[in-house]
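User: Predict the full complex structure for these chains.
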Amino acid sequence: MLTGDPLKLTISALGFILMGMFTGNTILLCLGLISLIFLYAAIEIQPPTNLQHLPPPESIIAYVDDEQTITHQITVEKGMGLVTLGQNLPAHFSLIEGNNIQAYWVQKPGQTLELSYRIKCTRRGVYQLNNLNWETRHPLKLKPTQKGIFPEHTELIVKPRSLTAKRIRQQKIFTKIPMPAESRVKIGVPTTNFKELREYSTGDPYKNINWKATARKLMSPNSRPAVNEYEREGRRVVFILLDTNKALGLGTSLKNSFEYAVQATLGLSEFYLTRQCTVGLCLFNSNNQGKTTKPVKKDQPQYLFPETGKIQQYKIHRLLLNTEVGATDNSIHQAADQMKGYIRGTNPLFIIVTRLTDENHPNLIRGMTELQKYSRKSQNLKNLMLINVSGYNLSIKKRGDKSAAELLQHYENAQLNGLRRFGVTAVNWDPSENTITEVLLKQVKQR
Amino acid sequence: MSQNQTPVRIYEASITILGSYLAISSFFNSSLYKTIATALNQLLRLFQIRTISSQQITTIIPLLVTLLVSLLVVYDYIVGKPENIINIYQLNLLLITPETLSYSKLDWLNLIQKPQILEPTRSPTTVYLSGAIILLGYLSLYFTSLSRKTSEELAYRGVEESSVKEIFLKQSALSITLTTSATIISTIVFIAISPLNTFLVSIIGQQPYNYLAFGVPGVLLLLLSLWFYFREQEK
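Assistant: Here is the predicted structure of the two-chain assembly.
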């Protein structure tokens, strides 16, 4: 196949030659030869063909805001001319360095071309790199352009960043962040830590009978021997509830309250998992009043039962990777109802990650009242913690917005104070000003 | 104007000015112009209008027109589109036609008994070289304009400027090299035609139908070209 240009050249060459032959004019004949020789020489040049592709690795794992270099190597086995390579970027990726479309001049066979560019992963998720498009052209455009694609199998896994909380070992420092110190599982190997005295029941080992206490109790009628009860070996339970209410979408599509809420959830789960706690995760929607008790089922899993170790950490990562605003319609009631078999009797620490608004405030109060049913009351320890991800500063676009955001934050603080009176450890986090680590460190006080 | 494009732009301007000068001087040196000038002179004298002599015209007018073309090239260089320069070549080819046709063996003007309209005035080599330079300019400028379009397209698609410039330079260099090579080969053929003709005449000149010995290969070459083109089209 040829383009229209060779036809034009042939016609002009033949025109000169025919005219020269007809009139017996050697000048015209030789002028016609110029076009003809040029055409023959130009058509003999082959455009670049037989392109071999060396793709990037099949899986690339990065964290949000990380920069990654994508490199493709193409070897042109034959031909000469222009080669264009281009690859569309997946959504939520920005180009930092280089170019995702590039053109190369191939001078000799076997030349290796490299398409390399740096991208920034701006949002968590699992992405697929688009196919690499190629295009080859004859150096003088005498033959049609060839186009094609190299199928791409590279998967880009962008993980959310988590907080890097460390244990502070100074003895004179204490934190107001609750640890589920009282919560224990019921079954487990008894330790040597004394818990309480209780009545003897059939099957108790004799060595556990507290003879002094039994002797004191002999004065009363129908008394039974008293035995020592020891703490059982077990793990403390933390339950994180992540709000997927649309109010958390405040901000831009890349930097909004929900993205930071995910970051906080991930960080807290890692924090407690590394401290030998069993951590459970549940998605809920604070816009739902919780009147209906039947949970709405969706394709995506909405909760993770309390477990421990790195496998649980991986499961939490996978769940949060694909969680979006509005992922569930279940209220806190429904979430607690789903998980009650796992939390009853364990006296867990509940952490709610949300954004307080006028609409969801009463629902959250009702939900927390429900959760308190599963917690044993203690004067010193609070088993309910709420992290409010304030998003007003994230949505500032123009000058006046700043003042409006400050006003709304005051109102938000008043709401949080109300919750503190209710017995909740309420933490306010403005992601535009502090990291979650900094906010949690503020809870640490000198004795 | 980018630095990388400068050599190509200088080449375009030089070949255009040179080609235009050669075309204009060819026309003013042709017998056709002399016939027209004489007729015009007589007509003006009839109405008693003073004119300069035709000798002065052949000196002044080519220089004036070349100056005009140079100004046009400079104008295109500064504000116009470079590909518009190629339009000048259509005029150049038209201007050189009378002098080229004056070397025809077929004296067709003899039919109207006016053979003096197209008579050779300069050497055939000069005429051929003028024509070859004009054609060289036409072909190379046509392909550099295609390279320029490719560059614009690539830049529009977001290819880096440095790559676009490099591609333009290499693509233009290739087209200029190919056209120059074709012109040189053709010039060698033209120069070799006269001794080759003498040699062939000494061998086959006495043979009957000797014209066929030149005519048949010529026709075959034409047919081969057409076959070649259509074969490629079919692929």
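Residues 401-421 of chain A form the longest helix (21 residues).
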